[in-house]
């Protein structure tokens, strides 16, 4: 079981992803905008952070920048979720510090499978 933050402003997508990941046994915190996500990040440690690229208040890219400034850094893997899937957008996300990029739309089940792969890779590093 992993501790995961899902920052996504689309309520239906957030509910689908949360339900799918909880069914896999993960503990999920949900944020509907960048400010709420930042608050969770400041108060908790996560195994994985899923960030929507375009959210109200702070974008996913801005959150990555803000995470670097925190006194207690996150050691979580960061996955950016975005409909902006051009190569330049993906490159910008990786250069900003995200570990992975997943294009929208996606199947919540396919996302859950990819998350399991990412968590397995991350755990094998320890």
TrEMBL record:
Domain of life: Bacteria
Stretch forming the signal peptide: none
UniProt xrefs under SUPFAM superfamilies: CheY-like
SMART domains per record: REC
Name recorded for this polypeptide: Response regulator
Keywords annotated in UniProt: Phosphoprotein
Modified residues (4-aspartylphosphate): 52
The keyword Cell inner membrane belongs to this UniProt entry's keyword annotation: no
Transmembrane domains' residue ranges: none
PROSITE patterns per UniProt: RESPONSE_REGULATORY (PS50110)
GO annotation, biological process: phosphorelay signal transduction system
């Amino acid at each position: 079981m992993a501790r995961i933050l899902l920052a996504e402003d689309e309520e239906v997508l957030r509910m689908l992803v949360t339900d799918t990941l909880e069914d896999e046994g993960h503990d999920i915190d949900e944020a509907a905008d960048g400010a709420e996500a930042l608050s969770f990040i400041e108060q908790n440690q996560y195994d994985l952070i899923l960030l929507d690229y375009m959210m109200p208040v702070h974008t996913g890219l801005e959150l990555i920048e803000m995470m670097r400034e925190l006194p207690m850094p996150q050691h979580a893997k960061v996955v950016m979720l975005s409909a902006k899937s051009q190569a330049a957008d993906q490159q910008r996300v990786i250069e900003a510090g995200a570990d992975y990029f997943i294009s929208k739309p996606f199947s919540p089940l396919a996302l859950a499978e990819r998350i399991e792969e990412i968590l397995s890779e991350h755990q094998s590093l320890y």
